[in-house]
Amino acid sequence: xxxxxxxxxxxxxxxxxxxxxxxxxxxxxxxxxxxxxxxxxxxxxxxxxxxxxxxxxxxxxxxxxxxxxxxxxxxxxxxxxxxxxxxxxxxxxxxxxxxxxxxxxxxxxxxxxxxxxxxxxxxxxxxxxxxxxxxxxxxxxxxxxxxxxxxxxxxxxxxxxxxxxxxxxxxxxxxxxxxxxxxxxxxxxxxxxxxxxxxxxxxxxxxx
Amino acid sequence: xxxxxxxxxxxxxxxxxxxxxxxxxxxxxxxxxxxxxxxxxxxxxxxxxxxxxxxxxxxxxxxxxxxxxxxxxxxxxxxxxxxxxxxxxxxxxxxxxxxxxxxxxxxxxxxxxxxxxxxxxxxxxxxxxxxxxxxxxxxxxxxxxxxxxxxxxxxxxxxxxxxxxxxxxxxxxxxxxxxxxxxxxxxxxxxxxxxxxxxxxxxxxxxx
DNA sequence: TCTGAAGTGGACTAAATAGTCCCATAACAT
DNA sequence: ATGTTATGGGACTATTTAGTCCACTTCAGA
Lengths: 208, 208
Hints:
By secondary structure, the first copy, chain A, is mainly α. Chain A is 72% helix and 0% strand. The longest helix of chain A is centred in the last third of the chain and has 27 residues, at 128-154.
């Protein structure tokens, strides 16, 4: 939302907003499938059925478009995860969350990886603003996981001395690393295995 | 080694081998820093001080060069890890291995991530051969970790019913996910945290 | 309803980029 | 020695790509 409009404070009619949204949607799909670097503006134009002047009317250039894509993907992922994790308070709930992610990724045999993670690795070293936005999104996502862990703690399913933040970091790393290994192997098994190991660790903390 | 020479079976003089190596070395550095997609052949030429005909003499094109880079990076990483892990047989040894990786990554504040992992995410979905090579390299790397875990098992530091292969997968995912989070945050802390969690889990298996 | 700003289309440009080609020189085998 | 093959330099081309420009249309408020 912050970097949403390139020409800050400009008026934006409903028609304009629609065009802008179509551009972002097309760019999001293309960049997920082909990668950011391999996606050209002409392809985005063709896919969204919009002319070049429109693109430069709404965005300062490719970098700005990429940032808009990051915002868009980020919103979607965070909303999805908020719905999936917002009310989870048991280990079983976490396992169901794991199942959903793994099954979803299995549909593509692991290809393309995590929508947010792929953007992050490709963009982080080239665009400081984009990197910051992505970093914040990961923090938010991790916060949702930490919330689940705190609720586990409250219900006694996790000892009070466990650091929920560190466990959330470890769980997120297992998830992202799992995505990456699955993408490279074209097989979701390593992703399932790595999340399972993280969950087993969390579970084991209350059995000692 | 397999995809090493583009024009298979051609003679290769010492001079030619040197030129080829210079091209690969320059391409490796550039692609690590700038990314594969953002690295142009002209840049590789300039950095290696070689003319275009040489590049096309030794490689069929950019894809072939990328595969040579993967082979080169893979060899380096595997050799490094073989030296670091080949004789490790204690949890303490694993922790020292962790320290070395974290400290090394801290020098860049996490930037660029894992040499192999970055290549994997960027190339896996576009070049099937490259993906396979990377997948094999990850398997080899994981095998080294599994070897350590088997030695732990032999010495009684890990129960015999533990699946060393699955634990190695989880450890590798924690490492790669940690690299990614560190790269996005420009801070190695999450990498350290995630590997620590994986190691803590491994350690905890013998204390129950 | 009038006016200025937002929205739109698409041709155009300049630069970059992958890949080709040709000719020259060095190395090697016999 | 000599023919053959590897190595080398670098100009050249066709295409792609980001980005510009301008004429035209639609919209919203005074």
